[in-house]
Amino acid sequence: MATTTASNPSLAQKLRGLSGEAVKFGLVGLSGVVVNFAVFWVCINGLHLASLRSNIAATLVAIATNYLGYRYWLYRDRDAASRKREITLFLLFSGAGMLIETGVLGFSVYVLGLSSHVQQVAAKVGGLALGTVFRFISYRTWVFTAVPEPTGEQLAAARAEAAQDAPEAPAVGVVAQAELMLAAERIRYAKAE
């Protein structure tokens, strides 16, 4: 099989795909930020909880809403074969991001002595920014992994299997090969978007 431009996207195509992914990640993240800050503000002002407790509660609610956006909108085309693994990794990396965010907030409140609500929100923004960078890298690398492209050996095995199933009808093998090629192309185009 000849290598085409579609199977080996150029650097510009890869960057366009990554920038589109970053924009979608940002939109889901922005909705999570709105949820996060709304819950934080209610906890700190309405319920009069301490800032770190308020931050943890707000972040946990945002993590739940973000998972839905990432799984069912942004990374819907990614491998979902093992949801248990995916959710476990998502919660692990989200928890690490929450620790980064809460650590920055705790440092600003307890070490720097920033005690007004506006100062705490500003510290939360800084922590959220650091946590977001960490989450973007970890989610796309380890949590929502791309479906692997079929190798030449896998294509050959599929052809051989199709030929064994119907040796008198070579067209069946061609159909199986075409289906594998179409599946691989859909994956490649999804990555480029």
Report on this structure:
With 193 residues, the protein is mostly helical. The chain has two domains: 11-143, no CATH class; 152-192. Helix content is 79%, strand content 0%. It has six helices and no strands. The chain has helices at 11-46, 51-74, 83-111, 117-143, 152-165, 170-192. The longest helix is centred in the first third of the chain and has 36 residues, at 11-46. The protein starts with 10 loop residues before the first helix and ends with a helix. 22% of the residues are buried. The model is unreliable at 1-6 (pLDDT under 50).
Topology:
Blueprint: H1 11-46, H2 51-74, H3 83-111, H4 117-143, H5 152-165, H6 170-192
Helix pairs in contact: 1-2, 1-4, 2-3, 3-4, 5-6
| Helix coverage percent | over 70%
Largest sheet: none
As residue ranges, the low-confidence spans are 1-6
| Mean pLDDT over the full residue set | 77
User: What's the shape?
Assistant: elongated
Subcellular location: Membrane
Main location: membrane
Pfam family, one: GtrA_DPMS_TM
Organism: Kitasatospora putterlickiae
